[in-house]
Amino acid sequence: MRHKVLFVLAALGIVAGLGSAYLYGVQKPLPPPVFNPAPNPYPKGIYATGIVESSQANGQNINIYPEVSGTITRILVTEGATVRQGAPLLLIDDSIQRATVAQQESQAHAALALLEELRAQPRKETLDVARAQVEMAEASLHSAQDQLDKLQRSYDLNPKSVSKDTLDNAINAVKVAKANLEVVRRQYELTKAGAWVYDIQNQERQYAALTKAHLASSALLAKYTVRAPQDGVILSINAAMGSYISPQGTYDTYTQGQDPILVMGSAERYLAVRCYIDEILIHRMPRGAQMQAQMFIRGTSIQIPLEYVRVQPYVSPKIQLSNERTERVDVRVLPVIFRFERPKDVDLYPGQLVDVYVGEK
Q1: Are residues 132 and 275 in the same domain?
Q2: Count of domains in the chain?
């Protein structure tokens, strides 16, 4: 009985194995592809990887870095917003610089007030005091001279009526009064002449220097408001309110590198495609006037014709994947820029990778 059970189980195992082999051997029909690979529309077309970017005369996108360091106190725009040239984008804490501007403005005003004081000399009240001092010195001289004349007449009549010492003191008093009168007269003339021309010139230079320092500080204060360099669209904002930024940009915790605080693109109805032609295919590339290209959006069957713009005549390492100069690659490429009109029924964004075939007309 036991041998029959083993035989039956062995037979069932063989049947199950044969059935499984048959089922697994049957080929199932492959599902249709989600989209067809980009076909080469040219007989001798060159394939290249392309990156969508803003359409502008030079460069790729507009990377905005602040000219001063500080903490962001307010962000005035959002990603995707269209801005005009000169529009404020974000504010940096300017409390210290604002106080410096106020201090230098006060110093410039004080220097101007002193300059105007020098130019307004002589002051009427000061001149009146100097004139009164001259009159008082003249009166003192007149009094001393009268006293001397009296003593001299008495001495001439009777030398014993006046002592020699008293007469000498009267003579000396007249000399002192004359000298004092000469001093106050010269002081009066000095006061009447006003400020010395060299003092005025020195104060003019002081005022000019402080004014320029104030203007420089005011210009630096304006840098604490980051403004749009031209009309365009905000593509990305890489810093949050409260973040510390510097002229090197803002620290990216993911890449551990420095990024621009904002990235702008042009607001034109065109977008550009930067294609990277492998150096071994450069000799097959058509001349600029004869060049045409087709762009294929990855993941779709959408095909868009491209218009040739220019060649960036410098073969460089292929670094568009990580955008880092430290990426170790052996492939060198030649950038070629095309442009196309923004399609109304397809969403395309700067930074998007596309497939491009370059051919000849």
Answers
A1: no
A2: 3
